[in-house]
Amino acid sequence: MRSRALILASQLLFVGCTDALVPVATPPLDRFVLDLERPLPERLVGWGLFARGDLRAREPAEDVLEYSPPFALYSGGADKERLVYLPPGKVIDGTNSETYIFPVGTVFAKTFTFNDLRSARGRAGQIPVETRLLFRREAGWDFAVYHWSAAGDDARQILDPLTGPGPTGDAWYARRLSLTGPLGGDFEYEIPSRRDCGGCHETRADRPVLGVSAWLLDPGLVDAGLFSSPPDVRPTAGRTPLETEVQGYVAANCAFCHHGQGGTDNASFSLRPEDFIANTVNRETESSASGIGVRVVPGQPEESALFEAVVRARDLAYDGDFKPMPPLGLLRSDPEAERLLRDWISSLPSDDEPR
To answer: pLDDT truncated to tens, each residue of the chain (355 aa)?
Structure first.
């Protein structure tokens, strides 16, 4: 009986009854990252970014790297899992700190998660809500956005111009979500469309990648050999540790628009780390897109235009003249930004002068 069972088990592992037994094999995943010129896959799994095509585990495939910049863009309280893929044999040219050059075939993916979402998501742990992709085709950079299922095991592409449930009422197509946090508080969250992505990533045509730059570079990408040579890196260091935190935060959340290279009203002045103090402390506002005031009044956060725009202007009860900053992608202000800016501005002596 034992030998017959072994024979039967071995037969189940093979196909056919000829002399050349053929092992049963799982067909290889058709990975979109290997040919970006095709139509976008409807489901995120089709990109081939995750090991074994397992979206529930969200482990990167062998040729996909995780990374984390030293300072992050605030996104409504979401945590982020960042991935990058480069085609075999291709590297990033980082010799120019102004513009890192990424090869055709580069893919960046960013999955937005919340810890222990309740209600509709109903599961503990880091729950994925959306994944945004930035990728370089032969014709240039493009975007894709995917909304995760409540079970966290699948994600479908969101197609413009849908702003609510799809034609069949499928909640996967919804972009404006009402979520319940771990402490029971409800909050609104909005998934951008592909068109929305360009509002930030196309503020400078030569610099669409925002989280891998001379100011926001994860050294792990250099150690992994993704650059052709050691890249040009710029420091974010301020005069104090607190000021360094503030400059890093602003580099990640503001400087991609406020780059000083022209093109928009806000871009007329730079908030990059090397310019931040000189362009804010005791400097009057100048942009036609802004209210009238002083950007940073030393020792007085409540009188500072920067604090008002970042912290207060997004409040529904706000009736001042400043537009909320950043202007896109947020439905609520960042409490960490309030803490950082309040502490830093309060620490500045009244006679502080720009460098």
So the answer is: 444 343 333 333 333 333 443 443 444 568 999 999 999 999 999 999 999 888 989 999 999 999 999 888 888 788 899 999 999 999 999 988 778 899 999 999 999 998 766 544 445 567 898 999 999 999 999 999 999 988 888 999 987 654 445 544 555 566 767 776 655 567 777 787 766 666 565 555 566 677 788 888 899 999 999 999 888 787 777 889 999 999 999 888 887 777 656 555 455 688 888 888 999 999 998 765 568 899 999 999 999 999 998 888 778 787 888 887 776 666 677 888 899 999 999 999 987 665 5
Q: What angle do CA 10, 12, 14 make, to 5 degrees?
A: 80
For residue 128, what are the β-bridge partners? 113
β-strand partners of 284? 294
**240 φ, ψ to 5°?**
-140, 160
Give the residue from 58, 69, 73 showing the smallest Cα distance to 222: 69
Write out the DSSP string of 211-261. SSSSSS--HHHHHTT-BSSPPP------SSHHHHHHHHHHHHHTTTT-BSS
Q: Is 73 exposed, middle or buried (0-12, 13-18, 19+ CB in 10 A)?
A: buried
Q: Is 309 helix (H, G, I), strand (E, B) or coil?
A: helix
Q: Which range marks the domain in which residue 97 is found?
A: 32-223
Looking at the fold, whether 74 and 175 belong to one and the same domain comes out as: yes
Number of domains into which the chain is organized: 2
Tell whether 291 and 206 lie within a shared domain.
no
Q: Residues 6 or more apart from 140 whose CB is under 8 A from it?
A: none
CB 243 within 8 A of CB 221: no
- Give, in order, the Cα–Cα distances in Å from 60 to each of 83, 88, 117, 139, 201: 7, 16, 23, 27, 24
Last residue of a domain, one of 223, 250, 273: 223
